[in-house]
Amino acid sequence: MFLRYLDYFRCTLVGKLDGLPDERLRNSVLPSGWTPIELLKHLTYVERRWLVWGFSGLAVNDPWGDRNTEGRWYVGTDEPLPDLLAAFHDPAAASRSVIEDHDLADIGQPGDRWEGEKPASLERILFHLVQEYARHVGHLDVVRELIDGTTGE
After folding, report:
1. Which residues have C-beta within 8 Å of that of residue 152, sequence separation ≥ 6?
2. Burial class (CB in 10 A: 0-12, 13-18, 19+), 70
3. Alpha carbon distance 73, 42 (integer Å)
4. Over the chain (153 residues), what is each successive 10-residue block's mean pLDDT?
5. How far apart are CA 75 and CA 25, in angstroms?
6. Is residue 139 part of a domain?
7. Residue 140: inside a domain, yes or no?
8. For residue 61, what are the domain limits?
């Protein structure tokens, strides 16, 4: 069930970005200032942080690479959408592998991700990921409606 929801939210996210010109992907329509392309990069890193670095305990190069020095989401002008989409699909495949290879009750590996706290169970991590995707895809739904009136899934 978790895999199906994550797949659904990933597809919906990509669908909401489809057809937006680069200018709309990179400029915010919100007071908070985040952009659609920044959201894509953020969710790519979210999966890496929680499942690869956190649960599996594997090294991740720059696990906070979706943020700038002020802690805000960031995408450089040299990062085109096709590259970010390709990078988005890589952690999704890694996530699927981790999820299929473990039971929901399995506990993550100790490591820096947990900042000295006990690692979380796979089930807790997956509930967090589903919540994060649902929230952010909902945000993107509103952003897309503000940009060009597109609504729905």
Report:
1. 141
2. exposed
3. 7
4. 95 95 96 96 94 92 91 94 93 89 96 91 97 97 95 83
5. 10
6. no
7. no
8. 2-14+38-134
